[in-house]
């Protein structure tokens, strides 16, 4: 029986969250966490993973468009380590290039503006990261054995 996967778009101001269905085929946004500190956000992500019985966390990994890793990648690696230690769950880094840009395009198409847009952009980015992971060959190897 498959379990749920938690998708995370870690940000300095807000961290977006998404959750897979039990079949591991569809991602849905489940909200955001106001990122007040590294540990507060990490603890809140772990609580969400536990609350939803997640067996895996997929964390967006900011890779530069040319494929190199920047300073933000170091922070994500530290966050990954914190989540693994705190939750006891495996954490997979997944390329998040263009997830926020894609979320902006989708919101432009729906005419979503202002505060409403700001409130959902991170959740939508987490959803796009998780859905991309679920659709990838990497997901099939890691989650299905």
Plain-language structure description:
The protein has 145 residues and is an alpha/beta fold. It has one domain: YqgF/RNase H-like domain (Nucleotidyltransferase, domain 5, 2-Layer Sandwich), CATH 3.30.420. It contains five helices and five strands, in the order βββαβαβααα. A five-stranded mixed sheet has the order 3-2-1-4-5, sandwiched between helices. Helix 1 packs across helix 2 and helix 3 crosses helix 4. The protein is globular, with a radius of gyration of 14 Å. The relative contact order is 0.22.
| Rg estimate, integer Å | 14 Å
* CATH level-3 fold name: Nucleotidyltransferase, domain 5
The unreliable regions are: none
Class inferred from helices and paired strands = alpha/beta
Topology overview:
Layout: E1 4-9, E2 14-20, E3 27-34, H1 38-51, E4 54-61, H2 71-87, E5 91-95, H3 99-110, H4 114-135, H5 137-144
Parallel strand pairs: 1-4, 4-5
Antiparallel strand pairs: 1-2, 2-3
Helix pairs in contact: 1-2, 3-4
């Amino acid at each position: 029986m498959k379990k749920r996967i938690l998708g995370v778009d870690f940000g300095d101001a807000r961290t977006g969250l998404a959750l897979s269905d039990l079949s591991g085929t569809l991602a849905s946004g489940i909200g955001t966490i106001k990122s007040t500190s590294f540990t507060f956000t990490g603890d809140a992500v772990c609580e969400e993973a536990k609350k939803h019985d997640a067996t895996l966390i997929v964390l967006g990994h900011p890779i530069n468009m040319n494929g190199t890793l920047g300073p933000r990648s170091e922070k994500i690696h530290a966050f990954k380590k914190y989540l693994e230690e705190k939750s006891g769950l495996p954490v997979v880094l997944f390329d998040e290039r263009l997830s926020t840009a894609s979320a902006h395009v989708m919101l432009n198409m729906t005419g979503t503006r202002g505060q409403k847009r700001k409130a959902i952009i991170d959740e939508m980015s987490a959803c796009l990261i998780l859905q991309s992971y679920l659709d990838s060959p990497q997901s099939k190897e890691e989650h299905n054995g």
